[in-house]
Amino acid sequence: MKYKAALFITVVLFASIFASMHFSSPADGAEDEIYANSDDISVSPSKKNFQLKAGDSVKVYLSIYNKFERTLVVFINYDTRQDPDIHVGFPNGHMIEIKEGGIGHCELDISVDRYARSTDHALHFDITINDPLRGNTIEADASHSLMITVSSELSAGKQYNKIMGAIDNHLPAPLNTPIVTTIITMLIWIWIAIVVAYFILPVVMKTGKRAMSDTEKIMKRWKK
């Protein structure tokens, strides 16, 4: 009887331990698996829609609010291939660590090329969130855009950035800039000058000499 009682107690203890591990671990794990979502931050720019002249620059600050229950790391990225007329710098880097309920600030140095087009330029910033417990980044719903209206005295309306003032420059960036358009136009004019100097002009001069010679002959005949 003592042996059976000891065996029964041992089985009950093992069963209790197993049940405790089986039912409590998922709950503990579920509690740890609370990760940041794409809407756990909000972004507010110091300037959103503004005007700049070609060659000017401005500082813009993105204020980022962390609505999550622990510290998040936020990355702000700008693809420089979006618009060759606009240049964006990050003096303090692309990464900001923001504590729970805190606000972080990302400083942007935005400058306009001196040959920029007189038009509206949209700048899109991709913002991603890194939750340290998640281990990977997710795209934030707060990814933001700014609109800059650029005015330029060098812009010539519909003739702006056209090869020979007539053909649109549809080359891929960075070959679609005004400087490249100007260089292409100059090369075309140089080629035209070479053709005129070495091919057309000699023919014209030779034809002119023949015409002068024929005229002189006619004049001599009239004198006789």
Describe this structure in words.
The structure is a single chain. Helix content is 34%, strand content 32%. With 224 residues, it is α+β, with helices and mostly antiparallel strands. It folds into two domains: 41-155, Immunoglobulins (Immunoglobulin-like, Sandwich), CATH 2.60.40.10; 160-224. A hairpin with a 3-residue loop joins strand 11 (162-163) and strand 12 (167-168). The longest helix has 46 residues, at 178-223. Residues 22-30 have low confidence and may be disordered.
- Low-pLDDT residue intervals, each spanning 5 or more residues: 22-30
Largest sheet: 6 strands, mixed
CATH architecture heading of the largest domain: Sandwich
Please state the average pLDDT score: 80
Q: Helical segment tally?
A: 2
The CATH class designation of the largest domain is Mainly Beta
Round the Cα radius of gyration to an integer and report it: 37 Å
The CATH superfamily label of the largest domain reads Immunoglobulins
| Count of strand segments | 12
Proportion in helices: 25-40%
Order of helices and strands: HEEEEEEEEEEEEH
The CATH topology of the largest domain, please? Immunoglobulin-like
Shape: rod-shaped
Distance between the termini: 162 Å
Structural class: alpha+beta
Number of domains: 2
The amount of beta strand, in percent, is 25-35%
Name its key features.
224 residues, alpha+beta, Immunoglobulin-like, 2 domains, 6-stranded mixed sheet, 4-stranded antiparallel sheet, 12 strands
Topology:
Elements: H1 2-32, E1 41-45, E2 49-53, E3 57-66, E4 72-78, E5 86-89, E6 95-98, E7 103-112, E8 120-130, E9 137-139, E10 144-151, E11 162-163, E12 167-168, H2 178-223
Parallel strand pairs: 2-10
Antiparallel strand pairs: 1-3, 3-7, 4-6, 4-8, 5-7, 8-9, 8-10, 11-12
